[in-house]
Amino acid sequence: MTTTTAGNTFTNLANPTRFLNLSGAVLPWMAGVTALLFAVGLFMAFNAPEDYQQGVTVRIMYIHVPAAWLSMMCYTVMAISAIGTLVWRHPLADVSAKAAAPIGAAFTFLALVTGSLWGKPMWGAWWAWGDARLTSVFVLFLMYLGLIALIRAIPDPSRAARLTAIVILVGFVNIPIIKFSVEWWNTLHQPASVIRLDGPSIHPSILYPLLVMALAFTLLFFTLHFSAMRAEIWRRRVASMRRRAAQAAA
Amino acid sequence: MGALFVRDLKLSLRAGGGALLGILFFLAVIAVIPFGVGPDLNLLARIGPAFVWIGALLASLLGLDRLFQIDREDGSLDIMLMQSSPLVLTVLVKCLAHWTATGLPLVIASPFLGLFMNISGVAMAAVFATLLVGSPAITLIGAVGAAVAVALPRGGLLLAVLVLPLSIPVLIFGVSAVNGAIAEPAPFLQPFLMLVAITLFFAVLGPLAAAAALRASSD
Amino acid sequence: MRLVAEDLTVARADRIFFRGVEFGVEEGEALLVTGPNGVGKSTLLRMIAGLLPVPGGRFTLDGLDDRSPGEASHYLGHRNAMKHDMSVRENLTFWQQFMQDDRFEDGAPLFEATESLGLGGLEHLPFGYLSAGQQRRMAMARLLMVHRPVWILDEPTAALDAASSEMFAGLVRRHMADGGIVVAATHQPLGLDAAHSLALDPNDRDVEFAADPFAADGVA
């Protein structure tokens, strides 16, 4: 079979087989470094000073803030993948978007749960709509679930790829609008939120563990993402072999 | 394009078109609320505008899955895709026709349903005005979901799941503007203009994305 | 004007039916695509109409500025593209107005078109009231009411009796005599003179899969 078109040079640079080889070599190292960073990060987090008001519950922040940050980053990765699907029709871009969706939903869920746990002592309730950030994250969670439902609803992967990419991008364009509107809605109903991390005022004793944890979470995301992409590539390879087998038998 | 508008309008308004069903659904939603929250007129007056908005939002989504599906089923969509006139424009006109047939009646019905909720005259006018400028946004953003779900068996449910999170800003600014009209310190014009901006924004984004999705799902 | 296919790959989703398909159809000529079910006839026709992406090679319509073949074509697929709830007149005049394109000459008026298909006088009826054969013929009236130089016909006469088929073949011949191009997938010979034939033979091809990046060897 001859498929030496101009577009293939690009495809060859990151074709699935090459990706499998590369990611297979890198993954153990990534997993190791992730574990190490988590060990260090958690150690630092538990040695960080307690908040004079919130006491020990402030440590939830070291999970909550990185998870919330990742919920956004994961969607950004999906949006970039969506552009890859629509513009370059790169097969790995679709694999990337599809693999990222459940991981993003998981991190978003983690951010919601930790946010709720953190907020409970302060709000006196498990959920407070008064917190604009948490509410925006909740809407993001709904968007992730909708995307997962969409991916699962379309049987043909090549068509699912483009349709999902379009919805991902529409959602991505909308995120700032949703965030702005939720914040606006919030200030209308309640004064400033309880959880507040104003950049420069954070003391280094809190900032450094937070940064290490953020790094650990980011690496964890990429470790999971690569593993999920590998699983998806294998899944498609099996499907491809099955089709060929059916064809050969006919 | 005018012909398309008239045709889609006719199809929606005729028996089986579903335009009437939207209003009935709207009415049913509003009728159920007092049974849930109790007959306290003061409470109803306070939450009424919000529920009218939510009811209109849900009713707008109800018939959206048919927006492109009926044209796909009988092959009309193929011919629309082939024309030299831009598909984005075709989608926009279909959205406008759909809104005129299903959204506009909801807007017109909203003051009457507001009576059930003991909403004051000013609030009713505000609900009417905000729905008038805000409900097209729901149709326009819903068109993306309709185009994506055009070939799927349970497209209607999927459409609602995809579109509802994206329509939260519309709801926020719509209800905020109504509250602004009733309660003194809160502003009316600011959220109202935001609502207009969102509708205009979706008038561009919605048809663009929906046209792309229709092209992608042609097979 | 000339419809040309160069080194065309006929493929749907991940399955390639044919590679290197070439043809050129001049004004007043027809291309009859024949072959058993599932061989890829409809796919080829939908590709010409611009409804499916062309995975390899290209289509051009020479001599009609830079118009894509789809824009200059009528497509009569398996479905009639008519609304059952609307009358025949509403259906047909809608398409006439919607497909109006200043760069082409005007088509026939409604009554002339229905008369040509032997269905004059039924314009006021809801489309759903007609029999299957009548519905098909009414759908054909669209081809007359809007002028497009290329007709892409997918099994146009499958639901028609012999007399109606002959009537339609006459319309196709008239279209060709006026300088039109016809591409038709059909089992029945339409009785066309200047017809090229493109026989898609399933034994002749080696059905293969499109370069699947996920295949075991990666580049396939």
Question: What can you tell me about this protein's structure?
Answer:
The complex is a heterotrimer of chains A (250), B (219) and C (220). Chain A has 250 residues and is an all-alpha fold. Chain A has helices at residues 7-13, 16-47, 61-88, 91-123, 132-153, 157-189, 204-249. In chain A, helix 3 (61-88) runs antiparallel to helix 4, helix 3 packs across helix 6 (157-189) and helix 3 crosses helix 7. Chain A is globular, with a radius of gyration of 21 Å. Mean pLDDT of chain A is 83; it is low at 1-11 and 191-195. Chain B has helices at residues 2-13, 19-37, 41-62, 66-73, 76-82, 87-116, 121-148, 155-166, 168-182, 189-216. Chain B has one domain. The radius of gyration of chain B is 18 Å and the shape is elongated. Chain C is of the alpha/beta class. Helix content of chain C is 25%, strand content 25%. In chain C, the strands form two sheets. In chain C, strands 5-6-7-3-8 form a five-stranded parallel beta sheet, sandwiched between helices. Chain C is globular, with a radius of gyration of 18 Å. Chains in contact: A-B, A-C, B-C. The interface between A and B is medium-sized, with 29 and 31 residues.
**Poorly predicted residue ranges of chain B:** none
Shape of chain B: elongated
Give me the count of strands of chain B. Answer: 0
Q: Uncertain spans of chain A, ≥5 residues at pLDDT below 50?
A: 1-11, 191-195
Please, how many helices of chain A?
Answer: 7
Give the N-to-C terminal Cα separation of chain A.
21 Å
Number of strands of chain A: 0
Biggest β-sheet description of chain A: none
* Element order of chain A: H for helix, E for strand: HHHHHHH
Mean pLDDT across all amino acids of chain B:
90
**Overall tally of domains of chain B:** 1
Class from helix and strand fractions of chain A = mainly alpha
The portion of residues assigned to helices of chain B is over 70%
